[in-house]
Amino acid sequence: MVLSRATDSDGSIHSTFASRYVQESLPRFQMPERSIPKDAAYQIISDELMLDGNPRLNLASFVTTWMEPECDKLIMQAINKNYVDMDEYPVTTELQNRCVNIIANLFNAPLSNEEEAVGVGTVGSSEAIMLAGLAFKRKWQNKRKAEGKPYDKPNIVTGANVQVCWEKFARYFEVELKEVKLRKDYYIMDPVKAVEMVDENTICVAAILGSTYNGEFEDVKLLNDLLLQKNKETGWDTPIHVDAASGGFIAPFLYPDLEWDFRLPLVKSINVSGHKYGLVYAGIGWVIWRAKQDLPEELIFHINYLGADQPTFTLNFSKGASQIIAQYYQLIRLGFEGYRNIMSNCAANAKALADGLVRTGRFDILSKEVGVPLVAFSLKDNSKHDEYEIADHLRRYGWIVPAYTMAPDAQQVTLLRVVVREDFNRSLAERLVRDIEKVLHELDALPSKLVTEVTASLVESHPELKEVKDIDIDSTKLNSCHVFNEVLNSQKAVKAWKKFVAQKANRVC
Amino acid sequence: MVLPTAAESDNPANSCMFASRYMQSPLPRFRMPEKSIPKDAAYQIINDELMLDGNPRLNLASFVTTWMEPECDKLMMSAVNKNYVDMDEYPVTTDLQNRCVNMIARLFHAEVEDGDQAVGCATVGSSEAIMLAGLAFKRKWQNKRKAQGKPYDKPNIVTGSNVQVCWEKFARYFEVELKEVKLREGYYVMDPKKAAEMVDENTICVCAILGSTYNGEFEDVKMLNDLLVQKNKETGWNTPIHVDAASGGFIAPFLYPDLEWDFRLPLVRSINVSGHKYGLVYAGVGWVVWRSKQDLPEELIFHINYLGADQPTFTLNFSKGASQIIGQYYQLIRLGFEGYKLIMENCRTNARYLTEILEKTGRFTILSKDVGVPVVAFSLKDKSLGHDEYEISDHLRKFGWVVPAYTMAPDAQHVLLLRVVVREDFSRTLAERLAHNIEEVLHEFEALHPKITKVVKEILVTEDEKNDQVEAKENSKKTHENRRRGRQARHPDSVDKTKGIC
C-alpha cells in the first residue's frame, strides 16, 4: 500500500482537473518512473474510457450487459476471491457444483435423483468447447489404440457456420475441421450431408443450437437419428456434441418439447455460455458431460491444493469467483418461471422488431421464429447501397449493428444482425426501426456506393477531369466529352467496379 | 428484468428479510427452482452462505492479490459489463491492453523499437499464457522439422520437476512429452546443467522458472542460457528458452534489476507473468510477451472480422470481462516504477522479518532464499516430535490463518514444508501475529508430551492390531484402519504423481 508522500498535499493537486497529471499524456509504451495519486489515476482512466462504446447499445453481442444491483453487490464482494482456491472457499466451490447440477438437469442428463453431474465452470464457451473436444479426441485415440488402428488424423464434422472457437480448437489441438458448406436459404448445417462426411477418423459431430449468423437451431434430432443408423452400419460409434452457447438457455424455456439435449442418446456433451442467455456478465461458461465415462479419467488432474485433493479439468487455473456466484444468483433468483418470462419477452421483442422491418418493405428476414431471439435481415435490393453502409450510418445514432457476409458457400449474402438481449425493450426496438428508416432515407439520397467508388478512382487516375467544363452541365453533354468517355470505358473504371463487387469472406462472432 | 408480481409485494411477511419464507426453505442444489424469489432475498441468502468461505486476506497460501485501492475497485466495477473481446466496440479498453503489453515487454527488455507495438497479449492467467507460449514453440519446432524432412511427432519440453501444474496440463493436453529434471535435498530448483544434458533434437524449449512455487527461488536462467548457447553451437538444434516468471516477473525488475533473466539473454524467446500475483491485480489476468514478431508463428493468429473490423487474436479464451485489464493499467500508471519498487521492498522486508522470527525459535529450517519471491518456506528441524507440518497447518487454521503444508517435488518428496506468501497486504504487524501464533501451536504440541505419547500410541496400536485380527470379519475393521490411515494418507510415500502444488 503506497502511502501518500509529503508533496501530495501540495495545493495545486487538490482539484483533480487542475492537477498537473491531467496535462501530461498518459504513458503508452514505458512504465512511468513516478507514482501518481490514486484519485488522479482513477479520473484519468475513467475519462479516457468514456470514449468506449456504451455496452447496452451494442446490439451485436449476445453477452449480458445488465444485472440487478443486488447481484452487482455480490460480484463486488467476491472480486478478491481466487476461484481455484477450493479448500479456502468451499462455499464458492459448492455453488459451482450446484450450478453444474442444475444445468445438467435442465439438459435432461440421465442422472439419478441425488447424483452429482459431470461438468465444470469455464471462462466461456471457447474453453468449454476445447475441453469437450479434448475429451472426444482422447476417447477416440484410446479406442483406436485398443483396436490397433492409426490415430494420428482425427477430424471433427461441423457446419461452416461454426463460431471461430471451433477453428481455434482444430488448429491448436491438431484436429482436422471438416465443414459442411451452407447454401442460399439454408444457413445451417445439413444433417444429411454431415452424416455423409463422417468417417472412421471423426471424433465427433458438432451441432449448433443457435447459429451465430441467424440464431437458427440445427436439427439435432435428425442428426442423431441419421448417425445412429450410420453407426449401426459402420460400428464407429461416432458421438455428437451440441454447441448450445446461446441456445442452451433458450430452448428449455421456450421450446421444452424440442429434443436436442441428452434426451438424444448420441449427445455426449453440451456447452452453454453463462454470459449469454444465462444472464451473467462476460466471463463464464459451462460444459456438461452425459456421464462419467464420457470424460476420460487421464485428463483430470488431481491437485494437492492447500492440503486437500481435488480433481480439476480446465485450461485456466486462477480466475475470479464473481461470475460463478452471479450465475447461481440468477438461477435461484429467477427460477424456471423467471427465465421463461425473460426469454418470452425477448422473443416477443424480436418479433416486433422483425415485423417493423418487414413493414418498411425493404428487407428480407433471414432469422427464423424458432431460435435464439435475434433478427437477421438483409436488403432486398443491395445494388445501390449495402448492409455495411446501413451499419455505418446507424453508428451515428449510437447503435452498433454489425453487417456480415454469410459463411461459405453462401458468402454472396450480406446481412445485418440485431441480438435481442434481456435489456432490449419494446421502446428501444421501435426506436431502432425508426432510426433504420431514417438511415434508408439518407442513403437513398446519396449516390450509390458503386458510383462513388468509380468516381473516386477516376479522379485519382485522371486529375485533369476536374478541369473539363462540360462535365458539370448535364449528363447528355457528358457523352460528348471525349476524355470522360474514354476514361469511363478504360481499365481503371472496370477495375474499380470489380473491386467493389468482390466480397471478402469475413467471420462473424 | 423481472418485475415483482402483485403477490410478492402484498404479503408484509416478505418485507422483513429474515422473516420471509425464503429463509426457511433450503436452497436448491440439483434442480432449478420453479418460482422466482425477490432479489433482496436472493442476495441475502447467498451472502449469508458465503460468510462461511475463508477470508481471502488471511489466505497465506496464495500469491494472488486480495486487496486493491477503492478507486480501482470503482473502475473495475464500472467495467464489469464490458466484454473485453468486443475490440471494435471498446477501442479504449483494447488500447489499454496494448499499452500494458508494451510496458511489460519493455520492463523485460524485449527487442522492440521505440514507438512500436510489442508482441504479446493479455490472458486469463499464467495457465493460458503458458499454453499459448508452448503452442508457439511447438508450432515453430514442427515447421522447422518439416522443412528439414525429419519426424515431428514426438515433441518434448525440459523443465524442473518443481514446475507448476499448468505445465503438466500443457504437456498432457497438447501431447508434448514432459522431461523433468529431478530435484534433490538442499537443491530445490532445476539444475541448469542437468537440463541442458536432457535437451535432444525433439525438445521444443527449455522452461526455467523465475520464482519456484515451492520456495520462491529464482532459477539461474543466465547459466542455462550460456550452457544452451554452447550446446546449440555443437548440435545446431537452436533450442530456445521460455521463462515462467508467473510470480517473479514483477519482483526481479524492481528488486534485482541487475539479475539477467529476461530478454537480455539471447535464447529467451517468450516470458509469461501473472498480473494477478505481484502485478497487484485481482484474480483473472496474466500476460505473455514474445521477444519479437518472428517468435510467434503467423498461422496461429486468427483474424476475426469482429463487428466489421479486422483484428488479430491469439488466445484460448474469447469473451471475458474487461475489468482486470483496466485494473492492471491502473496499477502500472498509479504506482509507476517507484511505487512497485517500494511495495516489493516492503514485502521483502516483511519476509525477512518473518524469517528471522522463525529462525529465532530454533525449531525451523528455512528453505526459501533471500533472493527470490517474498515467500517464507520452512520445515521442522526435529521430526521426532511426532507432529509434522500438516498438523501445524491444521492448528493454525484455528487462529484463522491458512498456511499450507506440502511435500517437495520429486526426488525430494520426503521433505515437508510450510509456505507463507508475503503479499502487499501482509503487514509487519500481521507477520508478528503469525509468528506468535506459530509459537503457540508449538507449545500446544509440547504440552501433549510427544515422546511419551508416541510410545503410548505404539502400545495401543499393537493392541489394536491384535483386536483387528479378532474382528477381521466384522465391519468395524474399516474404522480402525481409517483412524490410522487418516494420518498416513498424507504421508509422503502415498503422494500421487499426478498431484502438484500451486
From TrEMBL, chain A:
Entry-linked Pfam families: Pyridoxal_deC
Top-level taxon of origin: Eukaryota
GO molecular function, one term: glutamate decarboxylase activity
Cofactor(s) in the UniProt record: pyridoxal 5'-phosphate
Keyword Lyase: yes
GO cellular component term, pick one: cytosol
Catalysed reaction equations from the record: L-glutamate + H(+) = 4-aminobutanoate + CO2
GO BP field: L-glutamate catabolic process
Keyword list, A-Z: Decarboxylase, Lyase, Pyridoxal phosphate
Listed InterPro entries: Glutamate_decarboxylase (IPR010107), PyrdxlP-dep_de-COase (IPR002129), PyrdxlP-dep_Trfase (IPR015424), PyrdxlP-dep_Trfase_major (IPR015421)
Xref: CDD domains: DOPA_deC_like (cd06450)
EC number: 4.1.1.15
N6-(pyridoxal phosphate)lysine: modified positions: K276
Top-level class of the enzyme under EC nomenclature: lyase
Similarity remark: Belongs to the group II decarboxylase family.
Protein's recorded name: Glutamate decarboxylase
TrEMBL record, chain B:
MF terms (GO), sorted A to Z: glutamate decarboxylase activity; pyridoxal phosphate binding
Residues annotated with N6-(pyridoxal phosphate)lysine modification: K277
Keyword Lyase: yes
Domain of life: Eukaryota
GO biological process: L-glutamate catabolic process
Biased composition (Basic and acidic residues): 466-479, 490-502
SUPFAM superfamilies, per database record: PLP-dependent transferases (SSF53383)
Catalytic activity field: L-glutamate + H(+) = 4-aminobutanoate + CO2
Residue ranges of the region described as Disordered: 466-502
Bias kind Basic residues: ranges: 480-489
Annotated InterPro entries: Glutamate_decarboxylase, PyrdxlP-dep_de-COase, PyrdxlP-dep_Trfase, PyrdxlP-dep_Trfase_major
Keywords: Decarboxylase, Lyase, Pyridoxal phosphate
Cofactor(s) required, per the database record: pyridoxal 5'-phosphate
One GO CC term on file: cytosol
TM stretches of this protein: none
Enzyme Commission code(s) on record: 4.1.1.15
Family to which this protein belongs: Belongs to the group II decarboxylase family.
Protein's name in the database: Glutamate decarboxylase
